[in-house]
């Protein structure tokens, strides 16, 4: 059990966004967190990465407390969060965005090595290293965001709606890439998605959030065929 | 012809000092999204530090260094103790955008009162390292002097160093990233709080240089109510606005432009427009191109 | 219902006015003079409450608008020898016109841009007076409201006369202002301040609304300027430095910039701090440097403390606390909602 979340509750002022959520992940597991808008998925991720404060409960990664640290510290513990929608800095170049991911790492040689690795995963980025990030297409930006997250050599990857606003073909590619990376690098991944089908197809397990609480969870394949899930989120 | 050259050179020299203040304001703006209305007052305080060093060592350069270090340190303390607290408390509500303005205005008043209490209201002198007597071309004497040349060179060197810092170093990348997107910076492992303090610190040091140069280039004396420092803020602000508030290059261009415009207006139109000219330039810019000369029409709000 | 309110208010003002009148007969000259200053500051701060508190436009240039009014009144009185009342009207008018122009220029500005622009104005406008001889240059113009009318008796001093004029002006303008703030215009300003886009979508012409706020605020400030000059006896650039603008802003925020109810607090603070500072300085037997600057220090330190801890002003803070207490009481008395499933 590497990621242990126990009775996590998070409030936005008076509103309860995440209500008594508990789940565990083993190392190397990819779990898809799906649910309607406002179900608390983003808040959940943001709490795990230190951006939001929890009201109650606990969350640990390899026994390390996640709830009482600032994001910049958690990154150094191997946790990378790709936030929703705006995960690259448009005014910086592609190279600079990537370097950001590794900026806290001391060893310069290692940084360069990692950058080469990331570029080999996303060759399109390699072609555009000197360009400003705002000249990239949506799909390329998403790749850049994920690439930047990879630069810090994470063990736990938190992805918030990577498919948002992208064309279907690109979405396929992105999901494929996420699956391959997870397996190849032994990452533990929490994938929050509105694209429930796409996410469940590449995931090992799934969690369905509704109004902040866990409605159903379990093996991804079984969730795909579950009648309730199908009706509510998969549209068939 | 000579008058034209004189006017241009005066304008550029004054403009380079405005540029320094503008850079300070832009640094603070980029790191904390706040216009520090007390920036010139902090520069004044730094100039007092410089004065004390001058009195003891008789060296302008040591005084300048002391002023810059002291200014940087003081600015860091203000950010740590004051601004962080303020920004946390006023994060929401109708007062949110207004609070930093009022707080820095209050800071302005407090710093003024404190400096006047410690050093009194009299004019103190800082001696320039080189002469301010104009160069001669044949029989004509330019207003441009070794001192003004020195100022121009110093400002140029500083701007160059800052650019290198921002574009080529990791710290510079961290500063820029934190300015553009504090959240992404934080998620990239950057200690955003520390970076903010650094931004203020740099601004304090740059402002100190502006204060020292402003003093020696003018009458050589200064006091808590020196008209020079009052105008320094306004000029720096206008220069920063002209340059678009987001870039150092813009600040420099804004400063030089403002210096030139004011110089020409005073020389060729009327010298009595001294106080109102900056205001008119500001209005003009805000009407014609509110995002500044360099600025991009961004959705980024104040 | 609405009519009843304004009458009710009016009654309050009349009563208050009466109290002031009685009080003025019993206190010494210094207090009476200070009372006049307080009245002047009340008007000036109220103008800022309108502009910054209600319409959300931070202006660091109110002093310049006061100067406009003062010069307008003085010029008209000296050149055309009009009665005082008319000169005050002119003050309001001149300042209002200036405010309208400034408002039109500033309508597109917000936040620090607006503050910086008005600061530039505060620094730039008063020295203009030195350029035109009709404005008296550095020494300024004399502004004499004349002696108190004979029928008030021989004991009626000049200062008392100042106080009566200023206090009456303050009462009337506060009454008018409080009604304006309660009206549709006040609501429009508030709406524009909290969310400009939403306000526009509700049909409010925020641009015009802002300009109106500036114009009105300037007119009121102009009146304050004329009254200030009345108490000093002259109009000169040195009375309207940017320091004055900053002090007014400080007074407005200490009062609680979003509501008129606290306006007296700020005015009293501004007038009272120099006194308090004097006493404190004497007590600790400090040097001249410190004692000259202590009022400024206290003023701005108070401003900072206010912004940090009581950002909405003492009155509003108090109201908010009461409201919260009442709300908590209500919530506690409600039955607990049952824990249901989703949908």
Describe the fold and architecture.
Chain A has one domain (3-88, 154-234): Rossmann fold (3-Layer(aba) Sandwich). Chain A has helices at 41-48, 71-76, 94-102, 108-121, 123-127, 138-151, 168-185, 196-202, 220-225, 227-234, and strands at 3-12, 15-25, 30-35, 56-61, 64-65, 79-82, 156-160, 188-193, 205-210, 213-219. The longest helix of chain A has 18 residues, at 168-185. Chain A has 236 residues and is of the alpha/beta class. Chain B is an all-alpha fold. Chain B has one domain. Helix content of chain B is 72%, strand content 3%. Chain B is globular, with a radius of gyration of 19 Å. Chain C has a single domain, classed as ABC transporter involved in vitamin B12 uptake, BtuC, CATH 1.10.3470. In chain C, strands 1-2 form a two-stranded antiparallel ribbon. Classes of the chains: A alpha/beta (236), B mainly alpha (302), C mainly alpha (343). At the B-C interface, α3, α4, α9 and α11 of B face α5, α10 and α12 of C.
Overall CATH class of chain A: Alpha Beta
Fraction of residues in helix of chain A: 40-55%
Oligomer: heterotrimer
Strand percent estimate of chain A: 25-35%
Could you tell me how far the N terminus lies from the C terminus of chain A, measured between alpha carbons in angstroms?
Answer: 34 Å
Could you give a short account of the major beta sheet of chain B?
2 strands, antiparallel
How many distinct helices of chain A?
10
CATH topology of chain A: Rossmann fold
Number of domains of chain B: 1
Distance between the termini of chain B: 44 Å
Give start-end ranges of low-pLDDT stretches of chain A.
Answer: none
Helix-strand string of chain A: EEEHEEHEHHHHEHEHEEHH
Radius of gyration of chain B: 19 Å
Rounded radius of gyration of chain A (Å): 17 Å
Overall geometry of chain A: globular
Number of discrete helical segments of chain B = 11
